[in-house]
Amino acid sequence: MDLPTGIRSFSYGEDMAVFRTKTHWFWLLLLLAVLFSMPLFLANYWLSVANLIFITIIAATGLNILTGYCGQLSIGHAGFMAVGAYTSVILTTRFGLPFPLVLLSSGIMAGLIGMLFGISSLRIKGFYLAISTLAAQFIILWVISHWDSVTGGTNGLPVPPAKVLGLVLKSQSDKFYLILIVTIIIIFVAKNLSRTKTGRAFVAIRDNDLAAEVMGVNPFRYKLLAFFTGCFFAGIAGSLFAHWTGYINPESFPFTNSILYIGMIIIGGLGTTVGPIFGVIFIQLLDVLVTHVSPTLQAAFPGLSSGFVVGIAPMLFGVTIILFIIFEPRGLAHRWQIFKTSYRLWPFSY
Amino acid sequence: MQHMSVSRREFLKVAGALGLVAATGGSLPLFTACGAKVKTGQTLKVGSMTPSTGPAAEKGKPGQDGLLDCFNYINTELKGVNGHLIEPVWRDSKYDPAVVATIVPEFMDAGCLIFTTHASAEMTAAMAIANPAEFPGISTFTSQTLYHPPKHIYGQMPDYGDDWIAFAKYYLANIWKGTGKPRMALHLLNNSTGKGAEYGADAMADTLGIQIVANEQHTATITSAIDSLTRIKAQNPDVMFISSTPQPTSIILKDAHSLGLYPGITVGCAHASFTSALVQLAGADVSEGVYGVYSTVTWTDNVPGIAKATEYCKKYNSQDFGNMDYLSTWSTGLVIAQILKQALDNVGYDVLAKGDVNSWRAIEKSGIQKLNGYGVEGMTAEVGYVPGDQRLSKSLKMYRITGGNITSIGNWIAAPYIKYEDYSWFPKS
Amino acid sequence: MSMFLQFTVTGIAVGLVYSLIALGFVMVWKSSGVANLSMGQMLLLFAWFAYSMLAQKGIPIWLALILVLVFSLAVGWLMERVILRPLIAQPILSLITVTLGVSFVITGLVSFLWPKGIAALPRLFPQNPVHIGSAIVSQEYLWAAVISLMLFALLSLYFKYNRTGIVMRATADDQKAVQACGIAVTKIFSRSWMLAGALAAISGVLMASIGGITFGLVDTGMRAFSVVILGGLDSFLGAIVAGPIIGLAQMVGGGYLTPLTWPGVNDVIPFIIIIIVMFIKPFGLFGEERIERI
Predict the structure, then answer these.
(1) Do C212 and B247 touch (CB under 8 A)?
(2) Nearest residue of B to residue A316 by CA position?
(3) Would you call B227 and C120 a contact, using CB atoms and an 8 Å cutoff?
């Protein structure tokens, strides 16, 4: 369906491959080449924006597994990121563990905490489940803000730069490579997870959990697994976030972020691998754009009221989201699909 | 089907338009980022961020106006600093640490010589990037963790701990008439604003002779403080100190009033909440007689700085008139100009032109650390640098709310330098 | 004992104010199944509008309050007509995300129109507190609680006896059936958003008279979320009962537990209670239990 005409498969392996044609491979390698050479031509500022985007992609990919594939709405994702971030910092500074191990442990810790709150998904669903994840966000952040001896309380914790293979990753470009590589691995895992038995079980539960149970899918087990995986990715994102900013405190993981992540995966397209990527890039670049609208306006028209200059940024942001959803309620991934199809058939599309 | 195709076409139009806006708008900062490396113009770039939207907007917005109006004043009336115009690179941080983490590299790329933050929380997020790069920063509102131990971050005003100490000193000298130690209750915001006051109390309460009988915390958006005040009332305090922002402080005052706790005990406020908004929110009758600490003079004082600030505020941002946050960042602007002047006098423009690490070192060594006895046009206590102490102005003034107005009661009170990093309870960084 | 009474009285009063916000939320959910994420921002907008009318324009209180109400009805209508109507029959999560977009627009609008950022409404209620036994409660809270109960009664009657109210309930139950009866569902949606707007205006003005107008109102609006879900998303009775439960948990639980645990424990107690309740009553206290078939 997604392939140009005339492509045949000669083995099951070939049939299952994500990248089928030479053109696929060409675009993939070109994309990777561009990504890896980005530090050569981007200023530090744009690298830091790219870093934030990649970290958010990891978090959103996790949320997408949980919400997009398994249908379990979570509005506490930033809280699980916080778990990963703090675990990461504490393991690095107190126990001096090597970074790869720290990264993995942060993910596991966030995953376990996520599972704990996911237990309630056995009985509740939809927006009622959302409250349990919302509660997770507030309870986690409350513990972090008050457990002074471990988390530094509201003051937060300084984060030493990550050390990988003896290299201290200090500059934005060092961090960029680390974050990029982790992001690629995460996307690879997420894409393949969705094609396994587990991924199909998630989708079955999302579409109808009763029917799934009748078919022999253990809903409780897979729901918990979805919570673990989704929050595991959030933990990884949190750990990278901590080592990227160099300082974390409870205010780094606000509730509004949790809501924004949901917005991102919906705008991108739920239940697809490219969806969260598109959604995050769209929202973050839009944010960067509107952040610059205010100072640009201020410089160009000094007579403008400062209220207008400040207010225009969130207004543009909101209006774009509204227009976008009104005209493309199925998300960017849907648009991408249409684009790919029409590109393939061009110029004879009818 | 017909309808669908129309909406798709419209969608593409909208998307196209947005793309165009994105391309033009997005490329602007890219150009400035590249252009700064080359020696252009003769301006002095100053990065500044304020939390103008988001949860701290009520303080950030007037803060932004005060700072930018002050730079405007310096550029138009004083013809810049030694003839070099100040070029503010201003960004709205939205009070979001992730946004701050991208703004600071942008300042550094753009060739800013120094940067300012308004809230101490912004600087907490910014310093993790600025300190290793030796990029000097000044925070208008400060907490002790920003510069204990001292690195490349400076506080323009005394910190929240100093508020507590100044108030405690004033209270013991002028208000406390009883025998023994006065019993004090603390009501603190659950972030660095509250923590800072707590550190001050932890360090100095015993030395000064004050007994802390209650330590309550509140969030930035409380709707009732009855429960915490009921507990405080049970402790029979003589005095209560609040370190918070105007909205929660007004709730605490109103509820203390309902409970009959105030008037009765003395109430003092730290500088983050002590502004005209507090009086408006709590009401003139409820807030009558409340003491407060602030690090600048008020709008009614007759000093040159206030005259100019009033003129510009009324002309460009009349809605901020009476707001203390406007004055605090206005004085930050003046201090920045003085720092740049010192640096220009000592090393010349050529060193500063590049906006790289050498310029930053020059700003710090020959600008900030050479500050001495600068008067800030009468707006704050004299500003100067003493090695080890990264607070630029070190004195606070006591105020009292009378008849709905914030009136000055006495002269500048010096807040001693405390080496917080030597205390075991102080967080290590 | 006097402390306990104080905590109880305050808890119920504070809780009923949350209930009031929750009513506006339930209003929309009941008819269209949309979770309005811009509830907090709507409170903020209407509070500022009230400030404009009362403090800036100096219009007499009764007229100003009527104007605020008219404005809120208009905003509610506009939101439904312009933003939500084009999305009918689209995935429900898209509808929820669109309200997120609305919340940003309102944030921008507010900083544009009222750059002051912080303001107080003129006092609507007398300042002297009321004594209930040994407990003290301020008149602002008392009035807010009374208004909240009155609105609940009115809404319940409206949904029980008024024709439109009954149709709204029917719409929530089965949109297609209602349409088959020859009733325009769009009109019902429009009406429910207008009512939600009015409820947001009333709670916005009351909250502002208690704590002033700051961006914090958004946070307060979000906190009503927990009340809504505890009570059941589609139940007015749930909202009105869950509010005081959360308020009591905050005040009584927080009041006694704070000295034993960390300060600020009252902020999380409601959430812990919610999780426990969810295990026992998965559809909230009064939410409709859905029986599923394959």
Answers:
(1) yes
(2) B18
(3) no
Q: A182 and A240 in contact (C-beta within 8 Å)?
A: yes
- C-alpha distance from C219 to closest chain B C-alpha (Å): 7
What average pLDDT does range A260-267 have in this prediction? 89
Question: Is 1.10.3470 the CATH number for A42-345?
Answer: yes
- Does residue C294 belong to any structural domain of this protein? no
Whether the CB of B190 is below 8 Å from some CB of chain A: the reply is: yes
Residues 6 or more apart in contact with residue A218 via CB below 8 angstroms = none
Range of the domain at C20: 2-280
Which residues fall within 8 angstroms of residue C203, CB to CB, at 6 or more apart? C17, C20, C21, C23, C24, C43
Digits of tens for pLDDT over chain C (294 positions)? 678 888 898 899 989 988 999 999 888 888 877 888 899 999 999 999 999 998 888 888 889 999 999 999 999 999 999 998 888 878 777 888 889 899 999 999 998 898 888 888 888 888 788 888 888 888 888 899 999 999 999 999 998 899 888 888 888 778 888 889 888 888 888 999 999 999 999 999 999 988 889 888 888 887 788 788 888 888 888 889 989 988 888 888 877 887 777 777 877 887 888 788 777 877 777 777 766 665
Q: DSSP character for B81?
A: B
Does any CB of chain A come closer than 8 Å to the CB of residue B192?
Answer: yes
Q: Which residues pair with C245 in a beta bridge?
A: none
Chain B residues near residue A153 by CB distance under 8 angstroms? 195, 427
Contacts 24+ apart (CB under 8 A), C261-264: C262/A146, C262/A147, C263/A146, C263/B190, C263/B215, C263/B216, C263/B217, C264/A142, C264/A145, C264/A146, C264/B190, C264/B217, C264/B218, C264/B219
Q: Which of C120, C138, C266 sits opposite B258 (nearest CB)?
A: C138
Is the Cβ pair B231, C255 closer than 8 Å? Answer: yes
- The CA distance from B180 to the nearest CA of chain A, in Å, is 32
Tell me which residue range forms the domain holding B250.
160-294+399-422
Cα–Cα distance between C266 and C72 in angstroms, integer? Answer: 33
Q: Taking Cα atoms as reference points, which of B386, B370, B336 lies closest to residue B139?
A: B336
Of the candidates A49, A291, A302, the beta carbon closest to that of B91 is on A291
Cα gap B424→C1, rounded to integer Å: 40
Q: Which two tokens stand for residue A95?
A: 């126990």
Q: Where are the domains of chain A?
A: 42-345
CB-hemisphere CA count at 13 Å for C48? 23
Q: Which of A131, A208, A311 sits opposite C294 (nearest CB)?
A: A208
Number of domains making up chain B: 2
Alpha helices in B272-323 (DSSP H): 276-282, 284-287, 304-316
B contact test, residue of A93, A155, A170, A309 with most B CBs within 10 A: A155
Nearest CA to CA, how far is C292 from chain A (Å)?
A: 8
> Looking at residue B133, which CATH number applies to its domain?
3.40.50.2300
* Per-residue pLDDT tens digits for B54-65: 888 888 999 999
Asked if C94 and A128 come within 8 Å (Cβ–Cβ), the reply is no
Residues across chain B = 429
Mutation pick from B106, B123, B195 vs chain A, by most beta carbons of A within 10 Å, is: B106
* Amino acid present at A16: M
